[in-house]
Amino acid sequence: MSPSTPPNSESAAHPLPAAVRQLLTTGEEVEVRYELKGAEAYATATRLIILRDGAADAFEYRSIAGLREVTHVNVWLILCGVALFALGGTSTAFPVAGAALLLLGIMVRARELELMVTGRRETVRLNGVREVMGPLARRLTERGARTLRS
Q1: What are the tens digits of pLDDT across the range 36-82?
Q2: pTM of the entire predicted model
Q3: Long-range contacts of residues 118-127, Cβ cutoff 8 Å, at least 24 apart
């Protein structure tokens, strides 16, 4: 899944939600829509609008003090792989399946962007796949956010 083209208010395929439309100023248009896990992000020329559970929140690019990209291994796949590996006994099917799950758990990583926004105590967390999070992180760094190293 990759970022989609901007949904115009007249577009039948991806109409803008009312909460996002209300935040747009006169002449401001959504340039890119990002589909995230549990949220949607709409990028305009000056800010990022995040829609979660029908509530929209907007951040101007200049107020994003920094961002950090975090990856997490899939703990459940790793635990299932270890359990299958331990159940191996005399059968070779269990250790092979366990090793495959271990590798999958290590290689398939969840991506998360943490945005540090000026004036907010909590970081803004966005979860998604690499194909969406990469372009979103590039857009934010191009617009002025500092990338922080973990």
Answers
A1: 999 999 999 999 999 999 889 998 988 888 888 888 888 888 898 88
A2: 0.72
A3: 118/63, 118/64, 118/65, 119/63, 124/50, 124/57, 124/59, 126/36, 126/39, 126/41, 126/50, 127/36, 127/37, 127/38, 127/39
Looking at this protein, which amino acid is placed at residue 101? L
Residue type at 103 in one-letter notation: L
Cβ–Cβ under 8 Å, residues 126 and 133: yes
Contact 55, 46 (CB under 8 A): no
Q: Quick check: helix, strand or coil at residue 12?
A: coil
Tell me the two tokens of residue 72. Answer: 């997490």
Report residue 71 as tokens: 């990856």
Residue 90 CA to chain centroid, in angstroms?
43
